[in-house]
Amino acid sequence: MSVTSLRLAPAAPGARIVGWGSSQPDQVVTNDDLAERANTDDQWIRDRTGIVSRRIADKDTLLVDLAVDAGAKAVADAGLSPSNIDTVLVANCTMLTQLPNAAAQVAYRIGVTAPGACDLNAACAGFCYGIGMASDLIRSGSAHNVLVIGAEKISDLVNWEDRSTAIIFADGAGAAVVTAAESAATVGIGPLVWGSAGDLAEAIKVVQPGNYLTQQGQTVFRWATTKIAPVALRAIELAGLTPADIDVFVPHQANLRIVDAIATRLCEAGARPDMRVARDVVHSGNTSAASIPLAVDHMRSAGEISRGDVLLLVGYGAGLGYAGQVVLCP
């Protein structure tokens, strides 16, 4: 009996990020703007979340619109043209329609021709999931240049009279272009650490009637502040580094208290006192899958991240799911 042998695509030694981009709505909503409607006040919001303001899209702006803007900026930042992109991944959990997906629409509007295009839903961990998938697609030879976008229009799912959610969530998109590393020495994306805690899936969910997002804040806070630091440390270990090698820590921007608690755990494990920590949540709110690339792009624009910096990305949230990896800034 003859054995059929199948040919595999040429593999790459690894992948690296070569461009970033982001997009936010123009409308800034302050804590005072929310105070009367959500029965709260500025100090109460700051004390519990660290958030001062957030960006909210108007009713005519779609998740796809934000994703297109961020994605096009990332492609330009990478020095590529849309024709160079062969795969588009859009991480999101707030598309109001299941069909069509966001990715194919985004690719078409950016000018990417006939790419592999799909959405992935890992909620607030979605961008890290997407970077991990893009890296593995490239390493296997299934893709060459992948556009990964985290985009959310969470305002469509917010009950603006529910202060447990109305004060936190916001809209936006962030993107990165992932391409093949020329050699092992130029690999810029470390191994993905990911997982989930499905026993706590009910802690963040969309409920009917109303199609509103709800969350058990204390449950999520306890889980994130105890379970995510070990994930971050494992991502560092798998990348062959130590906590002292990390220049910039960019966690999901869920809540400033959570961000600072995880950063403290990393410092206790050996991270440097001068490790820069993303605190974009203060003026962007929680944008779920968009929060990590938004924070990176904002820090780059502010000169807080430089070429060659070692970044630790860690996403966590609804599902409950988590993911993280170490990457090098282009």
Brief summary of the model shown:
The protein has 330 residues and is α/β, with parallel strands linked by helices.
Walk me through the structure:
With 330 residues, this protein is an alpha/beta fold. 32% of the residues lie in helices and 24% in strands. It has 10 helices and 14 strands. The strands form 4 sheets. It has a 5-stranded mixed sheet, with helices on both faces. Strands 8-14-13-11-12 form a 5-stranded mixed sheet, sandwiched between helices. The chain is globular. The N and C termini lie far apart (51 Å). The model has no long low-confidence stretch (mean pLDDT 96).
pLDDT < 50 stretches:
none
Count of extended strands: 14
The number of helical runs is 10
Gyration radius from CA atoms, angstroms: 19 Å
Q: SSE order, as H and E?
A: EEHHEHEHEHEHEEEEHEHEHHEE
Give the mean pLDDT: 96
